[in-house]
Amino acid sequence: MKTLRWRPCNLFLIPSSYYYSKDLIIYKIMKKQYFNPDDLKKFGDITQHQKELGEKFFEYYGSVFKDGALTMREKSLIALAVAHTIQCPYCIDAFTTGSLENGSDEEEMMEAVHVAAAIRGGASLVFSVQMMDHAKKMSM
Amino acid sequence: MGVKQRTKSLKAKKSQLSNTFYQLKVLKKGVESGNGKGFAPFDQKLDEHNLQSLRPDGIEIFQLNIGKLCNQTCSHCHVDAGPDKGDEMMTREDLETCLEIIEKHKIPTVDITGGAPEMHSEFRWFVRECYKLGAEVMARCNLTIIVANKKYHDIPQFYRDHKVKVVSSLPHFSEKRTDSQRGDGVFEDSIKALQLLNEVGYGKEDSGLTLDLVYNPTGAYLPGSQATLEREFKRKLKRKFDVDFNNLYAITNQPISRFLEYLIHTEQYESYMEKLINSFNPATVEGLMCKYTLSVSWDGCIYDCDFNQMLDLKVDAPGQHISEFDPKTLSERKIITGQHCYACTAGAGSSCGGEISE
Lengths: 140, 358
What we know:
The complex is a heterodimer. By secondary structure, chain A is mainly α. In chain A, 61% of the residues lie in helices and 6% in strands. Chain B has an 8-stranded mixed beta sheet with strand order 6-5-4-3-2-1-7-8.
């Protein structure tokens, strides 16, 4: 029997044979996904229904990303790392582009993602102290 | 190490895009595989912002493309230059006519470009003559030509002796990103050439010898802040290679020629155009280079800018060749615009001298 290899496709795990085929089912899954890259272009629409708060948010957002004590380039790399931490696909698209625009290369961007990964991994591992303490307490 | 060609010219590939009519058709109507959505014509955008049609303010820069021959075939080249373009070189007679124009009309700056202009057999003679006339001479040097062949090794000294302002392309301080656009080995040779230029004083304080670098994105995105990029380039090039330079110009890639081919091939044409149009900045219009530059092609024809030249959109004036050069009618002309102009008005704007407005 043919062994299926599984590959992630957004939120779904699907057999890799489907992934590469032009199977209609996959096409339909892709069409109905929750994440639509084009939605990023409509980000400005969040001012609908709550104009004042939306506009205040964008004003604040714009100010945050201006050159300050940190450069736009540094801020884009921080944003890219955070985007990976919160696993926001829109933010990953936006700040990969932003980092490239501000002159970063893949090596720098990958290092930024490793910083995010190290903090996430470290945050899990540091709790192992609690695990070890508790295990010690419970053991003879 | 030597340079490997990144691609072939559109002409050598027999691409449809080697025909400027086809390029203009794509720019006007979009790509066949696209969503059919038309983009607002550039002139309409000017109207929306109550801006007048573009008119020239004078001739400060005489930009001469003296030939399309080049030792590199970069993947984004708007000139479609390359080693196979040896038959598209300006004649000595036309170069002499250019000198007469520069002298007679006291044009302050001569911007010499190509191809690799140094490969033109009359290049050194022409630079010497411009220098004698007292014009400021700018040479757009691709850097690698300096180390490509022994006969070009003394170019830095030649430039120094004639006070030539050197403007050189270096799309990134990373080898990978530079070579992905300009060809394997380009970064290494470019760094060697920059060090040789530094050795004779270029880019050094108080030397009076200017070495400017040109940054352009190595993909379908816009350049970020020129000041930020310049700071980073200076820091990285100094730290890693002890290279100094004066200014960095951030230039937006024009959706024409080989870059247009790349956009179509990677299905990014429409999103790139959208990006350019959504980033339209009316504050850039007054400083557009077409308002103070004239561009001359290898065959002596006159254009509003280098990009119109590559689309074969000659000036809208009775004299379209240097042999009929008439500053009066040229000063009264309307500048020809098209969808490619959005590249010069996006964000902080873009010109052969980098950003237009902060």
